[in-house]
## 1
Amino acid sequence: MRQDRIFEALAARFGGLWRHADFRLLWASLTITHFGGQFTLLALPLAAALLLNASPLQMGILTAFEALPFALFGLFAGVLVDRSRKLPLIIAADVARGAALMLIPCAAWLGFLSMPMLYAVAFLAGTGGVVGWAAYQVLMTERVGRENLIEANAKIALSESGAQLIGPGIAGVAIQWLTAPVAILFDALSFFASAWLLRGIAPSDRDRPRRAADGSSIWREIADGLRSIWHNEVLRSIAWSVALWNLLRHMYMAIVILYATRVLELSAGAIGAAWMGGGVGCIAASAIATRVNRRHGMGSVMLGGLFLTGLAWGLIGLVRAGSVATPLGLAFGIFAFDLGGTLFFINYLTLRQALTPDHLLGRVTSTMIFLTVAIAPLGSLLGGALGGWIGLRQTIWIIAGCGILLGLLLIRVSPLPGLRRLP
């Protein structure tokens, strides 16, 4: 097959995990869905803003519905992942998300697209993401081994960077020419393609369910995941710091598309082009992560990346409207945000996977996702409410100030600055 020849060429030229068949298919699956995700990332809020004339509060509610499944089902998803074979779970989650997204173009074509419809799809797609993303990370750890996690996460970050570099531009043009609902159709098809591709991964004993030998209840297994995080100083510190950062990030996500369309007066194509700056930031972070970790230490790089995201929000809030430089200014702010965020999350994912025993991987992964995203819906609602009350630009400035203060606080109180290398 053509894809096999491509992977063989990569393996021969670059070596490393490119020689690992399971990793290649997992990487290809994630890459496809990352590219598809760029369409929905822009098209879903643009459908609300441009087609349905959504208010800032309605945009906040939409973003909250995307994050709500992580708060409602995150803890249970971890137990489900540990008690199930991961590969069928990932395939089922991909098919479910594709089917949910298909509802939007169908509703648009039939003439009953509405904000409640967008809320429902955002919630259903988010529910698939809760299960699918946790299962992906556990399966990746089981198949490539802990000693290869940094390389695996860097390669995945690089593919996501490529998607962010190319995808938003294509998505912006597709939205402008074909409308947002049609653009979302491409994301739905990407999930179906991912599910088909994953069928090529052979079953393995390493993917076996890991239900507790003592027949523990679901609540006992959830408690085990929470206890494992609580008794690890590094994971505990990361959990509360990322939770606060996600509160701010969802405040920003709730209003940034409205800010770009109504304050900066940018078209869908210009917004897509500006969002490509995030891809450049991710690629830069992936390229320098190993080197800066070696020089400055994992913990310092993580906190430096988090601090940089606060500065980036400030840059985005300073962009002026009505100029040829407006898209460039927005693109530079998004570049800085994704550079800092990717430096943080490459190390965060690696630490979380490396510090967790095999039998707890599913529970700790989902529990960390729950702890770090549980208050995000409140951030979305707060961002939407503030945007409607005091203005979109003023709300972004508040988010930026809080992000900078959070970075300075963590430098003082977090154990991460003392963490030089992977334990």
Note: The chain has 15 helices and no strands.
## 2
Amino acid sequence: MPGPGAYLFGKEEMEAVVEVMKSGYLFRYGSENDPKFLHKVSTLEKEFAKYCEAKFALATTSGTASLVASVFALGLKPGDEIIVPAYTFVASYTSIIFAGMVPVLAEINESLTLDPDDIERKITPRTKAIMPVHMLGNPCDMDRIMSIAKKHKLLVVEDSCQAAGATYKGKKVGTIGNIGTFSLNIFKTINSGDGGLVVTNDDILYETAFGVHDQGHKPCRLGLEVGNRNILGLNFRMNELTAAVALAQLGKIDKILATLREKRSKFKKLISEANGFKFRTLNDPEGDCATICTVIFDTKEQAAKVSKMLCSKTVDNSGWHVYHNMEHVLNHLKNVGQPHTKGSYPKTDDILSRAMNISVGVVDGGLGSGWGININSTDAEIESAAKQFIIACKSI
């Protein structure tokens, strides 16, 4: 059950991997004078930065690694608070926790992204940053979020892991705040099995994130550095094979997004004749990735019945993207006084109980999007799925 990029694996990815394997050089660092070193990782960083119109990009082992490196790069102190939405993947919370900081949850709205109206209610003297999550490929209301951040002098780290290629008012997500993160795992817009990226226009944030991702080293594209390290780091380095696949996928990203938008538009138009639901709010309809079609029913009873008839489930019953399903995070947050049990965020609970995610490009039961269409669905298959949905709605 992959994301759209996986459906388009082909000769480009195969040839890129074979090229690296034949070179016999899989490590991200090497000498330009060595013909075996193809510098796929540094090329990916350069090309992704160019694609996002960002000054810097950093390749990592995963979206989670990108979040960890970015949160550490903010230079905050243990106990500082970062506001995050109550609907997101678990890594948004755990990256903050591993950095010694406290995730403070806020409500979502009917875009299924962070509700700006709730952000200011969650700000305390310990609040130092906001982590908007462009959930399910839908950009957050970044104008309002950035306005709040500026007013309260807060940093903004964008979790764009589910939204590679999305834009908000003409700007690529991930480049609007101070630093942004992306995932390349199998469920994402483009993927290399696993992997991640960080983007920023800030020299210091880039240098620090680089050090965190590689044992404290300063940025160096082609060779290993010795000395001059002033921060501690870990190992989140991407290898040449992963980068080779990611580069091939990056070359397909615009085609992927255009195809998804076209297919979702057809599907939405077809099911619009049914009653009892509305589509989720898109903060920038032109910039949304269209990986998911989310419908919000009038009542949770309707949502439960329709989703059951289609062998799917409501979003609140999906996996680790719903705050109260994260028992290990719940246990941790009890110790820092943050509510995390079901009912703590009633607006979020209500929306998710009435929402159903229909797959368009991301077919993922863990997101509640195990039913729907995919990037390769024909017009006939789109029409068939729409008919099933309409019948289910009319039956209740």
Note: The radius of gyration is 21 Å.
## 3
Amino acid sequence: MIRFAVHIAVLTAVGLCMSACTLEDPATPSPVAARMRRENSGLQTVKLSPEQLRDIKITTATVKKLQLPDLIDLTGQVEEDPTMTTPVISLVPGRITKVNVQLGDVIRAGDILAEVRSDEVAQIESDLLKEVLETDAQINETQVDLEVAKAAFDRQTLLFGEGIAARSEMEKARGEYEKTQVELRSLQTKKDANISATTERMKLYGVHPHEIQRLISTKTVDNTFDVVSPRNGIVVDRQVDLAQLIGSEDHLFVVSDLTRVWVVAQLFQRDISRVHKGYPVSMTVEGYADKEFKGRVDYISAAIDPTNRTLPVRATVLNPDLLLKPKMFGRMVVECGQSHVLAVPAEAVQRTGEVELVYVEDGPRSFKEIRVETGKRVDNFVEIISGLKSGEQVAVKGSLQLRGMAIQQVARSEEVED
């Protein structure tokens, strides 16, 4: 009896299970199964009414091959061009008495960057002034002697002409007169030589020649000298402040002409064979998204960077409006030639998360979602690597509205299934 009861229970359970299974229509998937299938495919067909088509005003484009530039996108960093950058140093020790510029100031060659008080410069000026004053005194005495000698020579010449004085007396007076002229010229030459030598010496210290001219004209020693800019450019570094003591050859400023800059980037090994010197590049930065800065590749490193296994490359880029700043990051695009690729207008591609979709016209007022893989984007076109065939018609204007309608269809479907 026990064995018979067990058999009855088993048959009853099997019968209930089979009855439950037959109650579910195989043609009607469960909500879970339907959702899983939808996630696997996820593609909708959007059918429009004539009114919707009129309101959305959809435009289409033909999928076709276009000749697009072969581009490599890199992240570049702006740097000063060393050939257009000059450090400003002090060649004498002293103390900063005035600073006229700040970081970022635009300056011209000859502008005064700072003033330095230096006892060494003051001593040089003092020594020159002493020599000049002594020489001037000697010149004044010699000029008096010259006037006396000239008067004596004129008198002897007159007496000799009247037969009163001997020729020897006249020749002696001539000799004294000419000797005094030579002495006067010698003193003037000595003065000029001292001034010239000191001027050249002061140039080595960075002192402008007008300082010596001021010293000679005013006869006043000034223990300060001007630190001037050697070139047009921008102050990109400043190492001094007011009252700071500086030593010989200390770096005070760096002045760089940023109308031309370097952009340095790292090239992945897979792209090394595609890039060569002379290739055109364009640079864009976040702060000026609507501007492109043009240049060319002019340096490719001979060795891989062992840290990140990339190859450093550099382009010289024109920066006429000084918008690019040192240490600024941006997108550097290298143009490596031309290639024929399948392409569509960029507006036709809609992105949803990591998925890119286009809407292909597959009948009157009907558009089917197609998942695509895209490549490079150039101007208003995007390369299609997979998902489309040449000749197909894709929605361009209105594709965003089609995406919205597809999402609504999915939402309604989920509500029905739930």
Note: DSSP finds seven helices and 21 strands in the chain.
